[in-house]
Protein: Pentapeptide repeat-containing protein
Organism: Cryobacterium frigoriphilum
Amino acid sequence: MTSANSLEPASPALDRASLRPDCGNCFALCCTAFGFSRSADFPVDKPAGSPCHNLAPDFSCTIHDTLRPRGFRGCTVFDCFGAGQNVSQGLFFGKSWIESPDTKSEMFAAFAAARQLHEMLWYLAEAQTRTFDPDASHRAAQLRNTIEQAVGGELSDVLSLDVQDLHSQVRLTLIEVSEEVRAAYLAAGDDHLESALKPGADLMGKNLRSRRLCGADLRGAYLIAADLRDSDLSGVDLLGADFRDARLDGADLLKALYVTQPQLNAAHGNHVTRLPADLKMPSHWQDA
Ligand code: SF4
């Protein structure tokens, strides 16, 4: 661990807008590299490494406007955190897997790794801005630098990176910052719920409506179809929490920790739901 005395100047906070998908500059990597299985999220099976049958030659989706009604809900939930355009344009210089079929397997492998790395950047950017601890901020910045150098470097840099090891290091930093942030909220929490609110908790279908959940640690919790309408999620650690079909109408997530776009995309909410910075209201919330 780095001591405060040996700190180098911390990197400036990362603009998370650069971690937004830019499908127009991507070779539809999510529609080809990854597979999916027939389920509530997809109406058909698709093996990894093959193009979806709805993919057009120009890498657009032929059913983009009707994905949910046609059963492709999983496509509307997925988010690459900007890895798609980075791999397509940065690592493969704008040459697609159609133009150069021999690059296909490396491109797909790079996308799988880069997607995880970009997601880590998303979390680290938040950790860096939420902590008041210079050591924690510096550790987040160092991890960011390692990842940014790899994804901004060459293909071999991405493919040779030990993603799992980095993931473990990032996780420790995120938890450290989470503890610091949540400590400021704990006094405002709901005592009756305290024992049920823990990492990995099974809160499927739970009625948590109009609750003050402030400062809870719901990292990895199962909130599938939970009713969180009008609840206050300020300072709640939601790292990896499963929000499928959770109700977030009127909920306050403005200061919630580690929320991602895929989590919101999987949930239901409305125009009154308060969202963290850099996240947008999913289009299906508007339709509702
Ligand atoms: S349905 Fe459309 S968005 Fe989904 S994988 Fe196929 S081409 Fe991609």
